[in-house]
Structures are given as C-alpha cells and as structure tokens.
C-alpha cells in the first residue's frame, strides 16, 4: 500500500518560486468531460479500426486538440470543430507532441480527428449542421491526400494567376452570366423551378438555345453530336432538361450562391463574393463552386434530376489521374467504351458514361483533351476536395487506383 502524502505545514520556502497550475476554463473542463463520457461507446465503435488502447490514444489527442483550439479562439466544443481554426490548432498541438517530426505528428492528429468526427456524425452526437460536417470531412480528407498517391509537384499558382485563370474558364464565365441574368431574382413554381417563360433567358445565359413549352417532352441532346442538332428544335418542359443550366444551377444552390424560396429564386449569401473586389473572397467562392460541380459529375447517384444509377468511378479515376501527371489516354477510354480492351480496368458501361461527361467537362474548360485527359492547373486544386465530398456522401464510392495497372 502506498504511503499517504502529507500536506506541507507551511507554504513558504522555495515552493513560492513554483507557479501554480493555471485553472482550466469551465467550458474547456466541461468539454473534456463530454469526451470522457463517450469513452465506452467510442471504444466499441473504434474496434472496426484498431484496439482499445489506440481508441483511448485517439480520445487523448482529441482533448489536447480541443485545448489547443480553446487557447487560440477562447471557444471550444467536444461535438463540433471550427474548420477555420483547424490548421492552427493542429499545428500548435503537433509542435508540442513531437518537435523532431511535427509533420508526422500532424498527419496522426488529422487521422485521429477524422475518426472522432466520423464517430460523432455516425452516432448522432455531431452538434453542427450536416454542411459543417461535410466541410470538415472534406478538409480532413484533403489533409490526408497523400494516401491517394498525389505527387509533390502539383503546379502552384499565385492568387493573381489563379484569378486570371478562373476568369478564362468557360464554366465560370457562364455562371457569372447566369447570375447577371438572375439579377435581383426570378419567379419560380411551387416545385422551385423557373417558369417556362424564363427558361429561354436562363438557357441563353449559359450558352444553350432552348425555350420552355408546356408540351415539351424532348430534352436537349448531350455529348458528341449536340452541336449538330437543330437549335430551333430545343423545346423543353422543365429547366432541368437543359444541360449546363441544370448543373450550374444546382452547384450555385449547393454553395449558397442561389437561394430558392417558395415563389422566387434569388442570389444567396455567397453570391456577393462572386464579383467581390476582395481577391480572397473571389477565389474561395470559385474553388467551392468548382469542387461541388466536379463532385456532382462524379457522384454515384448523379444529379438530383437524372433517373437511374450513375456509377462514375471511371470518371473519378480519369480526373484523378489527369490531375496527378499520369493521365488516361483517349484511346484507352474509347477502347473500353467499345469493349475492345480485354482485361481493361475500365468497365465498358462506365467508360461510355465517362466519355459523355468528359466531353461536357472539356467544353466547360474543366478537362483538356488531346491524346490524354488532363486537368488544367487552376482546376487541379479542386479535384481532391471534390472526390472527398463524394466519399462523404457515397458509402460505396471507390475511385480506384491513381496509377495504371
């Protein structure tokens, strides 16, 4: 039995030189207790990844991260993390854990935070919004992007170079024109779509000749051969039948650049950033838009208005390799689509759909097509966040290996 420690009779002497431990803020104490209360459930949940000892280590790192976050912002939470302070708090913690190799410590921190966040969301303990979770998930996945085999020589563009490159992207030019056409807002039906009389103006803003008609049954053609169709024959019964318009519209809604009310569609809170004089704001809103736009193209379930499944793992692989210096050749994809490549890693049906999507993305400036499919430098930075967003929303999504073979 250990001997009891006697309380010192005096408070004098050399102990005066020893500073007392600072009292933890009440909010931080309570948040640590919340993390502790999760321990039994978290350990059981963690068994799918590792053992109880590693689970406890994860919770220990989480509490240290919460403390670091509180020290920076004077606010903390055990069930929600602020994406804006994520990097600063993780860097501060990494430097205290392992000064010799803070980069390795940082990777471990992000891995643990990712698992803890997944636990919160899966078990209903996440106190932020679903959008908050997806943003954080995207950031944490992006921090671990090295696991996807990305090279270190991805071209880096200055803010000014990005701004100029974004101005030249057709998809962003069309989006800007659509926002200009939208103005202060347009009337929508009870289902949140533009009225038939406004379809022609909206379609024209994104470079498509179409007009609404009550008896419209035929959607616009897509992919190869679309340009050869008779532009006067494009009559549609819904704005969602107009390609390009529907994808840009959906992406604007997702980034809050467009707000759909019960009777009116109007610019959302993020629309002010589109032509903001502040360079950082302009760049950020464009990155968010491209990320959501690419994710929508890759998503298994396709966009919200297309019937039937869309398994576009092949498209994801082409984009990923096009962004990493080992692009897929046009001949390889066409051979797979024609079922001519025996043993190809590209399934025929997926290849056919990927060809169609890539033709659209090329028209919008998001893919360069020569002998191979490559991603333009300003768009590369959005590929990994886009695939991370797909991973967050599609449990069975698997983009496949980056490298051929």
Summarize the structure.
The protein has helices at residues 26-37, 39-46, 52-73, 86-97, 102-122, 130-143, 159-168, 170-182, 196-205, 245-254, 279-298, 313-323, 330-337, 348-363, 377-393; strands at residues 186-187, 211-212, 235-236, 258-260, 264-267, 368-369, 373-374.
Topology:
Layout: H1 26-37, H2 39-46, H3 52-73, H4 86-97, H5 102-122, H6 130-143, H7 159-168, H8 170-182, E1 186-187, H9 196-205, E2 211-212, E3 235-236, H10 245-254, E4 258-260, E5 264-267, H11 279-298, H12 313-323, H13 330-337, H14 348-363, E6 368-369, E7 373-374, H15 377-393
Parallel strand pairs: 2-3
Antiparallel strand pairs: 1-5, 4-5, 6-7
Helix pairs in contact: 1-3, 2-3, 3-4, 3-5, 4-5, 5-6, 6-15, 7-11, 8-9, 10-11, 11-15, 12-14, 12-15, 13-14
Description of the structure:
The protein is mainly alpha-helical and 405 residues long. The strands form three sheets. Strands 1-5-4 form a three-stranded antiparallel β-sheet. It has a two-stranded parallel sheet with strand order 2-3. A hairpin with a 3-residue loop joins strand 4 and strand 5. The longest helix is centred in the N-terminal third of the chain and has 22 residues. The chain starts with 25 loop residues before the first helix and ends in a 12-residue tail after the last helix.
């Amino acid at each position: 039995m250990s001997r009891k420690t006697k309380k010192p009779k005096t408070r004098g002497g050399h102990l005066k030189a020893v500073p007392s431990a600072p009292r933890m803020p009440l909010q931080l104490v309570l948040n640590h207790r919340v993390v502790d209360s999760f321990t039994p459930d978290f350990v059981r949940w963690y068994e799918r990844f590792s053992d109880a000892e590693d689970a406890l280590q994860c919770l220990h790192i989480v509490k240290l991260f919460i403390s670091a976050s509180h020290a920076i912002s004077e606010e903390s939470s055990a069930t929600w993390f602020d994406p804006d302070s994520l990097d600063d708090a993780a860097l501060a913690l990494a430097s205290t854990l392992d000064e010799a190799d803070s980069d390795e410590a940082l990777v471990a921190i992000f891995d643990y935070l990712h698992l803890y966040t997944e636990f919160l969301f899966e078990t209903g303990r996440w106190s932020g919004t679903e959008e908050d979770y997806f943003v954080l998930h995207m950031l944490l996945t992006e921090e671990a992007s090295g696991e996807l085999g990305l090279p270190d020589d991805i071209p880096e563009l200055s803010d000014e170079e990005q701004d100029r490159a974004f101005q030249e992207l057709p998809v962003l030019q069309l989006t800007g024109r659509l926002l200009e056409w939208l103005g202060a807002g347009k009337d929508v039906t009870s289902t949140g779509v533009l009225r038939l009389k406004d379809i022609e103006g909206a379609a024209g803003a994104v470079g498509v000749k179409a007009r609404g008609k009550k008896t419209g049954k035929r959607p616009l053609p897509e992919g190869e051969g679309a340009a050869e169709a008779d532009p006067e024959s494009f009559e549609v019964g819904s704005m969602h039948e107009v390609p390009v318009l529907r994808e840009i519209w959906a992406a604007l809604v997702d980034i809050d650049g467009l707000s759909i009310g019960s009777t009116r569609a109007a610019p959302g809170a993020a629309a002010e950033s589109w032509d903001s004089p502040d360079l950082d704001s302009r760049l950020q809103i464009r990155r968010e838009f491209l990320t959501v736009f690419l994710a929508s193209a890759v998503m298994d379930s396709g966009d919200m208005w297309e019937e039937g499944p869309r398994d576009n793992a092949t498209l994801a692989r082409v984009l990923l390799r096009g962004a990493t210096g080992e692009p897929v050749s046009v001949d390889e994809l066409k051979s797979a689509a024609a079922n001519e490549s025996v043993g190809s890693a590209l399934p025929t049906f997926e290849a056919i759909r990927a060809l169609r999507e890539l033709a659209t993305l090329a028209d919008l400036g998001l893919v360069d097509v020569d002998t191979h499919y490559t991603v333009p430098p300003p768009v590369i930075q959005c590929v990994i966040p886009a695939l991370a967003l797909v991973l967050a929303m599609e449990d069975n999504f698997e983009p496949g290996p980056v490298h051929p073979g």
